[in-house]
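[09:14] KT: can someone run the structure on this one? pasting the chain below
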Amino acid sequence: MRTILTMCIYNEEEFLWDTLQNTVKTVKDLDAIHILDGAWKYGGTSPNSSDKTDRIIETFAHACQSNYPELEIFFAHSSDIFESESAKRNHQLKLIDGIYGGEDYYAFVIDGDEEIRFPNGVVELWLRDYLKEQNNRCGLVTTYAYNQQKGGKILRFIPGNQGIHYHTGKSMCLHDKNCEMITDYTPGIEWINKQCFEVTDFFIMNKWNIRNKERQIEKDKFWQHQQATPEIKCTY
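[09:31] RB: done, structure tokens below
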């Protein structure tokens, strides 16, 4: 069972270094980190990041060669602007399946402005054996906005080679290979399939609510567009 950290990013210079450092210091049995850079319609203005994101990743990958030589780093760029955030995330899942097709693995989803934290003073975690016991179920982790008390159960673990994907017309939903809903973690709905497992040993803290205004505005445009568009059939 491999554990693959997956990150879909776009103009993440503000917190990306801290997120990468937090992850490799915290998760002690990561096999690889797969990063996909690129914007989506109403969520960015250029196919790839225009800030220092590339430089941060290159510096991090170089440091890993010495500090974590067993860790594989994959950094992919988009050749165009994706139709939606979900389309971007699905593209990444297909890329990872192409690398690890036929192997058992879990994609551990982290955004470029997040940290893994613990409620009990623990500072490290091991995932591989734990995930092996989950029988290809999807996993949820409670996620909090920075300095907020109420969190949401967000999908963070996706088993590979199962055809599981994001609903292309509704970015907060996850589908199985038959496009049947597994979970909808849209704030206020949080419909959860009982087949999911829930991680309680750690939580994730998201810094979205303290990000720079330019990046917030870009993401807000996407949410406004999505809310104004009638739900469409998933095109995965």
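[09:33] KT: thanks! The chain is about 25% helix and 30% strand.
[09:34] RB: yep, looked fine to me
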